[in-house]
Description:
The protein has about 450 residues and is an all-alpha fold. It is built from 21 helices and no strands. Helix content is about 75%, strand content about 0%. Helix 4 (about 45-70) crosses helix 12 (about 240-245) and helix 9 (about 170-195) packs parallel to helix 13. It binds 4-fluoro-L-phenylalanine (PFF) and sodium ion. Pfam families: SNF.
Amino acid sequence: MEENRDQWGSRLGFILATIGSAVGLGNIWRFSYQAYENGGGAFLFPYIFALITAGIPLLLLEMGFGFFTRNSAPSSFRKVKEKFEWVGWWSVLVAFTVTVYYIVIIAWSLLFVFESFSLGWTADPEGFFFGEFLGFSGSAFTLGGIQWKIFFALLAVWIINYVIIAGGVEKGIEKASKIFMPLLALMVLIIVLRGVTLPGAMEGVKAFVTPDFSKILDFNIWVGAYGQIFFTLSLGFGIMIAYSSYLPKKSDVVKNGIIAGLANSIFSIVVGFGVFGVLGYMAQQQGVEIADVATSGIGLAFIAFPKAINLLPGLPQLFGFAFFFSLTIAGLSSSISLIESVVSSLIDNFSLSRKKAVTLVSIVGFILGVPMVTQGGLAILDIVDHFVNIFGLLLVGLIEMLILSYAFDLDKIKDNMNASSDLHVGNGWKAMIKFIAPVFIGIGFVQSTISELS
Ligand code: PFF
Ligand code: NA
């Protein structure tokens, strides 16, 4: 069985696929706003602290775990103790739930790629987005009125994912990552170069980076940084376990993990300059403050950016294309990893063929996504997102760390990882996993649950 397991064809392929998973919608629409709101340049202190004390250590833990067990999440946890298998299934369930709505958003991005050719979001992007595009009714209970354009885009995005994942680890995921990641880098280069050279851009960039040190004394900001690190590195979804289970025996897991972890953050910071350059330009054009135009999430991508693109001097279509195309490929390289977490678990546990497993996941995932392309779709998406934020992410990650620390032997993972790595993890790493990260993440979980519920 083991000999038949899929494998990455090259180290570069594995690193690109891992970065592809980590770099996603969140890097483009969440990080820069979070930094701006939480102290600008000063936010880098809690952010980098969280990256070093939790992000990279946990990334290495998940990678080392999958590399050690050579299995996807559920069977990996079963190897720790029979009774822990459910932790793996829980992370797979979270991955699947996120997939269902993450792919809906990729479908919107894909449609906006086409809208960008004609600036089809009109002079009133907000009205367009909620009106003609989503046909949003305002209530989760309006299941009528399928938005057919989005329906077919959703189908198309599932088919793209299906084809890539059915192709296998090396011939599908790795090959796609080798195409997507350079393309993404190119698109981001266009966005950033254009963004920072616009009139008024420097005002925006200043708002993004000017340190407000009074904010870093706020404990909540530190806890928020931990939450962001988790999502941004795709931790707690069983993805890194599955991806690393496909590594050849001789891989340098430690170095690969550190490279991927750093690349993800560098990507976020670089994109931040482009995003705030554009926001600075828009604020200047409209004669308003940066604070009046800065937002994050869906509002930034599908409303604020189209507004800004409308105002661009010279070839706004090219910029619009670069922006929505980068959202689309950043999203796709993350969605394939989410789906692979589910698919690899089905393959390992039910001896399904890869084709059968991907077919099953794609059909069920597509069907569950259909309510999200109706007139109530946005509200449903929101509810599912809240649900995942409460029961997913931090909670799974926390339990994962505690089990591997206290019901298993971290040294086994450590020694196995060190044996084939140039760089080594030591007692500092163990201390982060056993004590420091769980404390912050535990507090983060309690706090985010309270804020989600209120
Ligand atoms: N890391 C991705 C982002 O920052 O957008 C989101 C993500 C992708 C989270 C895949 C989890 C995941 F499994
Ligand atoms: Na990310």
